[in-house]
Amino acid sequence: MEKKIIEVEAITVEEAIKKALKMLDAKKNEVTIEVLKEEHKGLFGMEGAEKAKIKATLKARK
Description:
The protein is α+β, with helices and mostly antiparallel strands. The chain has one helix at residues 13-24, and strands spanning 4-10, 31-37, 52-58.
């Protein structure tokens, strides 16, 4: 079985992880997460100036 790898962007790293888990239909312990880019807050601390980006790799299932 080949590894399934996706890249996901969201407002926060946690949101990106949640989206990736849903897309892969997997639990957190079944996925390797690599943070490619942390989110950056905008003017006055507003969220979403720059989105977070992660790479999620589905581990081989037994």
